[in-house]
Amino acid sequence: MASTKDWFETVAEAQARAKKRLPRSVYLALVAGTEKGLTSRDNELAFDELGFRPHMADLPEKRELATTVMGQDVSFPVLISPTGVQAVHPDGEVAVARAAAAEGTAMGLSSFASKPVEEVAAANPQLFFQMYWCGDRDRILARAERARAAGAKGLIVTLDWSFASRRDWGAPPIPEKIDLKNAVKFAPEVLRKPRWLATFVRSGALPDLTVPNMALPGEPAPGFFGAYFEWMQTPLARWEDIAWLREKWDGPFMVKGISRPDDARRAVDAGVTAISVSTHGGNNLDGTPGAIRSLPGVVDAVGDRVEVLLDGGVRRGSDVVKAMALGARAVMIGRAYLWGMAANGERGVQNVLSILRSGMNETLMGLGKSSVHDLTREDVLVPPGFTRDWS
Ligand SMILES: Cc1cc2nc3c(=O)[nH]c(=O)nc-3n(C[C@H](O)[C@H](O)[C@H](O)COP(=O)(O)O)c2cc1C
Fold it and tell me: Per-residue pLDDT tens for 221-234?
């Protein structure tokens, strides 16, 4: 479908619209990445090294995209990856949840999100709650229990974070809250983006930059920096901590951020049910290869025991097919839906999901596959050295 004012035809176009619409600091917070941006770039570029082996004629009339992930039926294998407080749109994660529900897919909600888990689960019951190892065991468990009571169907524990804070293109300033002083400071860049400002003004609220899911029941929502400070003070997670939380949760449980086959085996020993091969979108240790390069090694190590997903660099339906051909059960997307939401709110997120669905359908047709479940490594050409030989 050709682009119109209300519809973009690629994720690249969504990104261009987001750049035009968002204040510079907000846009840069979504570009994110660390240090030189090697990993963030490789997440995307590595997909381009993979080729397809298309069939001609005798192609199936219909293609099956539906699957299950962590016990949830999804209409196609693209899920929403959890992303933290963004100030992209006043409806925030609730808009994302509605869009994902409308497209028949599940959502990961960040513990650093701007909307409470109760509101988001009401908008999409196919919800997985994401946590970092932050606070003592009692607080960690209480946050997980709050999410369970709200209806979360699974837990995602993200392990890949080393508090790296430098970017060659400049980390944007993040205000603690929007008060008069900060309003004056950010006014020049915000006033240049009247449409972004207008959506917040119409909603009756400015971005408040609190993280309500870091509060225990009865506590006020802390600010982003307060929660981040608690996290920085927390002793780093050990595999025995993960095994402990996994046992307490007693339901679908994903560890997100694995690159190495040996870590994947440790995660399986800790009892997880799913792994996402991920580099945190290139926001952690710069120089880690793009996630898709690490996928085959992890699949070979543990793919017969747990569900293996991938996130990082997915911008097209053909990327999803490449990941599935290399053994992923599904993928999760981050920036793609954030660009979509910045471009056009809830409809923009649906637009992105729809682009990925159509792209998958076309790619499967070209490959002569009637189902995502029939994809194998034979469907892609993998150049020598692609996987960087992890094992
Ligand atoms: C702005 C931003 C915020 C993020 N916040 C979180 C978060 O709170 N928790 C988490 O597990 N991952 C977070 N991530 C990582 C994403 O879940 C995901 O791993 C990554 O975005 C995938 O790469 P992609 O953006 O290329 O799709 C964040 C990523 C971005 C870009």
Answer: 999 999 999 999 99
